[in-house]
Write a structure and sequence with these properties.
This protein is an alpha/beta fold. It contains 10 helices and 7 strands.
């Protein structure tokens, strides 16, 4: 069993990369990918922990790209942390987050919530500060009772403290991942909020732009979603991946490798991913 969509303290997860690997070993996973948001800073310690733990580790990243009406994320696998092109692209993404964070803080203060950036930073352990850390600060101050409530009331798209930020275009995101030697995968198609016909047209266009794969298996995907996304993968010759989108304490209902409990990702998914990256399949 594997999990190809996880997060650590370098973005918005609650476990360090070594702690994430330790948990994967305890859960009897055979392979795992660290896919932090807009950063590869946790990859070196992650890969070393995988080596020590005798676990297959895949260097990954998750990039937010520009799309409406839903949310589009692009997963990169077998990316190189030392890649200049991808590093510059991720740097622009983090700068966009920093600009947005200041605006979010100002909006929350204007709404009467007395929090500071120091309050937010307490919950951001490593590299990237984002809305989940604002949610934790709001909960600590007693303004909300659960992180999810922060998005429902203040931080979600269309809510009073929401601020948009800089994103790469999907095409640039795909190109940056591939220039680093990686392969590009469309994450959780459900969040695109598209009808089946619209999604099919979009996936076709992304495939022409160089998309390699599609995340078919995901914590929130139903059996109907999985069937449709599998058909899209076959039609556009994309390999299939999957993952829990594990964040630890921020999403306590999602278990590593198992999602909400029913997710089971077979080791066989690794073969096409390695083949697309031009790498030998792990034993």
């Amino acid at each position: 069993m594997i999990d190809l969509h996880t997060h650590s303290t370098f973005s918005d997860g609650s476990l360090t990369p070594p702690e994430l690997v330790d948990l994967a070993v305890k859960e009897s996973l055979t392979a795992i990918s660290l896919t932090d948001h807009d950063t590869m800073a946790g990859i070196p310690s992650f890969l070393e922990a995988c080596r020590v733990g005798n676990l297959i580790g895949i260097a990954g990243v998750e990039i937010s790209v520009d799309f409406n009406p839903g949310t589009m994320h692009m997963l990169g696998y077998h990316v190189a942390p030392q890649s200049v092109a991808l590093g510059e692209a991720l740097g622009k993404m983090r700068e966009g987050r920093d600009d947005r964070n200041g605006q979010i803080l100002a909006k929350l203060n204007k709404l009467g919530m007395n929090i500071t950036m120091a309050d937010v930073m307490k919950h951001a352990s490593e590299d990237v500060v984002g809305r989940p850390h604002f949610a934790q600060a709001l909960m600590e101050k007693g303004y909300i009772s659960a992180p999810k409530q922060a998005f429902e009331l203040y931080l979600g798209k269309g809510k009073p403290a929401y601020v948009d930020r800089f994103r790469l275009t999907p095409e640039v995101g795909i190109a940056a991942i591939k220039e680093s030697g990686g392969v590009a995968v469309l994450a959780h198609p459900l969040t695109l909020a598209l009808k089946d016909k619209e999604l099919r047209e979009l996936v076709g266009a992304l495939a022409e732009a160089g998309l390699n794969g599609i995340e078919v298996y995901y914590s929130e995907h139903t059996s109907n979603h999985i069937s449709f996304y599998t058909a899209l993968a076959k039609e556009f010759k994309l390999f299939m991946t999957g993952g829990s989108d594990f964040h630890g304490k921020l999403t306590p209902d999602i278990r590593l490798g198992r999602g909400f409990g029913a997710l089971r990702l077979a080791d066989e998914l690794l073969g096409p991913l390695y083949e697309a990256a031009g790498r030998p399949k792990p034993l």
